[in-house]
Backbone:
């Protein structure tokens, strides 16, 4: 049995008052929304910490992407490479905990890093079910380049802050839901 009749918009001149036609062909009036000439009101959003954190996150991620664009490294992959470099032979499960990733996210990311020749996974000698991780020479080279670019990116982020303000910002951010970090 067919569903309820749906009406389709009918284009008019200049988008003035619109008309719809039902499936029977009868024209019906639809209300026209006034056009805005000014900025869209944001309501309570500008007063919300989460809103500002999200805007900042977008800006930071966009700048990060620009900084490392030709290296094809996301913030997540960069973080994984840094942790693996700092902990040669790290277990996959330890990396997952450190990067706060679940297995369904970690494994495809490691597959990507391994396929690019940046990371080597080797079974542990005492337990073949455990994979340990190392940077390859190619991974170390890429990470060295990425770190240089990320250092410039970080400098851009705090260029309008003093060192004390930067440290204070880190301290304040650390207070936001520390139990969920």
Residues:
């Amino acid at each position: 049995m067919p569903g309820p009749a749906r009406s389709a918009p009918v284009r008019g001149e200049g988008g003035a008052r619109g008309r719809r036609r039902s499936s029977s062909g009868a024209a019906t009036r639809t209300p026209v929304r006034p056009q805005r000439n000014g900025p869209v009101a944001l309501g309570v959003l500008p007063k919300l910490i989460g809103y500002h954190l999200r805007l900042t996150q977008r800006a930071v991620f966009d700048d990060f992407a620009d900084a490392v664009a030709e290296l094809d490294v996301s913030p997540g992959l960069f973080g994984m490479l840094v942790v693996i470099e700092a902990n040669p032979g790290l277990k996959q499960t330890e990396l997952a905990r450190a990067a706060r990733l679940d297995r369904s996210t970690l494994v495809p990311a490691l597959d990507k890093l391994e396929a690019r020749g940046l990371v080597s996974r080797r079974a542990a000698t005492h337990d073949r079910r455990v994979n340990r991780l190392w940077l390859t020479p190619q991974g170390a080279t890429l990470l060295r380049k990425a770190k240089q670019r990320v250092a410039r990116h970080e400098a851009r982020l705090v260029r309008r802050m003093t060192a004390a303000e930067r440290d204070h910002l880190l301290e304040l951010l650390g207070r936001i839901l520390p139990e969920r970090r």
In short: Residues 1-16 have pLDDT under 50 and may be disordered. The helical segments are 49-67, 75-86, 92-99, 103-115, 137-157, 163-175. The radius of gyration is 26 Å. The CA atoms of residues 124 and 130 lie 6 Å apart.
